[in-house]
């Protein structure tokens, strides 16, 4: 019942705010998103495919980045599910590859360190207690290892977890990045939660 109530509240908010376009990066695993898109009366509803389509009547468009997913789901697609649009380029890997690696010293990390890190626009959610405990264990076991979280500011509550484990001196929060390729090249190990 809470899913339905939350979805209804969000749908009403979208309408009262006069939102013209809803673009959701979601899937069937996100019931609040699915219900909100179903209930909201907004001019344009669009989704970014994340592995499984919503198959939701009333959608205007779903964007795909993988032709295999389009081929698979086209067999089930109905007219009322909206248009399927393939955006085959996705990230420009050539552009990412051409970006020169940031100097580790710009993050206060020695060049000889083994850098473990992650990049996300949702670090406060992604850096769970289990994730941070795992990273702290690695840092304790490997004195040359450092952790670099890219995508948010300092996150003092998260840093406190590393202080409690005695490894905060080898933890850095690098902030949002405009040159993602350059930032990712600083990492030796990408550790996604």
Short description:
By secondary structure, this protein is α/β, with parallel strands linked by helices.
Structural overview:
With 193 residues, the protein is α/β, with parallel strands linked by helices. It is 36% helix and 20% strand. Strands 1-2-3-4 form a 4-stranded parallel β-sheet, covered by helices on one side. α7 links the parallel β6 and β7. α1 crosses α2. The longest helix has 15 residues. The two termini are 29 Å apart. The mean pLDDT is 89.
Show the helix and strand layout.
Layout (H helix, E strand, L loop, with lengths): L1 H15 L4 E6 L4 H9 L4 E6 L11 E4 L2 H8 L8 E4 L6 H6 L15 E6 L3 H4 L2 H13 L3 E6 L5 H9 L6 E5 L4 H5 L4 E2 L3
Parallel strand pairs: 1-2, 2-3, 3-4, 5-6, 5-8, 6-7
Helix pairs in contact: 1-2
Count of alpha/pi helices = 8
Helical percent range? 25-40%
Mean pLDDT: 89
Q: What is the 3D shape?
A: elongated
Number of strands: 8
Distance between the termini: 29 Å
> Which assembly state applies to the chains in this document?
single chain
* Approximate strand percentage: 15-25%
Question: Going across the major beta sheet, what is the strand order?
Answer: 1-2-3-4
Describe the main β-sheet briefly: 4 strands, parallel
The low-pLDDT segments are: none
The radius of gyration computed from the alpha-carbon positions, rounded to a whole number of angstroms, is 21 Å
N to C succession of SSEs = HEHEEHEHEHHEHEHE
Structural class: alpha/beta
């Amino acid at each position: 019942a809470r899913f339905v109530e939350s979805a209804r509240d969000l749908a009403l908010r979208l309408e009262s705010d006069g939102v013209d376009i809803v673009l959701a990066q979601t899937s069937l695993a996100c019931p609040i998103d699915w219900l909100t898109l179903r209930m909201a009366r907004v001019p344009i509803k669009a989704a970014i495919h994340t592995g499984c389509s919503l198959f939701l009547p009333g959608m205007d468009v779903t964007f795909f980045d993988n032709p295999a997913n389009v081929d698979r789901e086209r067999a089930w697609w109905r007219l009322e599910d909206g248009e399927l649009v393939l955006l085959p380029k996705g990230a420009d890997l050539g552009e990412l590859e051409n970006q020169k690696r940031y100097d580790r010293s710009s993050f206060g990390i020695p060049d000889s360190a083994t850098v473990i890190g992650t990049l996300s626009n949702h670090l406060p959610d992604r850096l769970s207690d289990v994730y941070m405990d795992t990273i702290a264990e690695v840092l304790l076991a490997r004195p040359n290892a450092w952790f670099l979280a890219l995508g948010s500011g300092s996150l003092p509550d998260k840093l406190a977890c590393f202080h409690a484990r005695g490894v905060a001196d080898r933890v850095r929060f690098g902030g949002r990045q405009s040159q993602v390729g350059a930032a990712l090249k600083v990492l030796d190990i990408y550790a996604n939660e």
